[in-house]
Amino acid sequence: MSSTISPRCGTSASTTTSTTFVQMDVRALNPRAKRFDIVLAQGVLHHFDDQEATDLLAAAGRLLTDEGRLITVDPVFDPAQSLIARVLIANDRGKHVRQAAAYEHLANAVFRQVRTHVRHDIMRVPYTHMIMECSTPLQGATSGTRAAQRR
């Protein structure tokens, strides 16, 4: 995708940088060919069991630049969530919705820095999201099998 600036963006957008958006399975990308500042996994982890989720996190870690970040957004079970949010999330098609500590545990097996946020106010309907910002992959943890062994 080319870096086309919308007139609505005003002068704060730069036309001197190149922006590339890629939508695909991160496990299929060659980390030697392309590195990314941001990898976004929105609504993905809760569809994978712990092993698959760890493998996905490790694959994303291999694609990050030195200053890169992986951002994930997934439904989460939280003691402070409303009954309606809990029911909606319990009926999600993803079979692996976790509590916040479980998502964080998965990310800590792969990344040195993991920041987490539980949000109840992103959607108009009652719903609870877990947002993780992961950076600085652990040495060797992004090899796939090593990440699985660290869990």
Walk me through this protein's architecture.
With 151 residues, the protein is an alpha/beta fold. It has a single domain, classed as 3-Layer(aba) Sandwich (Rossmann fold), CATH 3.40.50. Helices cover 25% and strands 27% of the residues. It is built from 4 helices and 5 strands. Strands 1, 2, 3, 4 and 5 form a 5-stranded mixed β-sheet that branches. Strand 1, helix 1 and strand 2 form a beta-alpha-beta unit. It is globular, with a radius of gyration of 17 Å. It starts with 35 loop residues before the first strand and ends with a helix.
- Parts with pLDDT < 50 across at least 5 consecutive residues: 1-13, 145-151
Principal-axes shape call: globular
CATH topology: Rossmann fold
Radius of gyration equals 17 Å
CATH architecture: 3-Layer(aba) Sandwich
Roughly what fraction of the amino acids lie in strands?
Answer: 25-35%
Helix content: 10-25%
Number of domains: 1
For the terminal residues, how far apart are their CA atoms? Answer: 37 Å
| Arithmetic mean pLDDT | 85
Largest sheet: 5 strands, mixed
Topology pattern, helix = H, strand = E: EHEHEHEEH
| DSSP, total strands | 5
Structural class given helices, strands, pairing? Answer: alpha/beta
- Classified in CATH, the superfamily is Vaccinia Virus protein VP39
User: Helical segment tally?
Assistant: 4
Identify the CATH class.
Answer: Alpha Beta
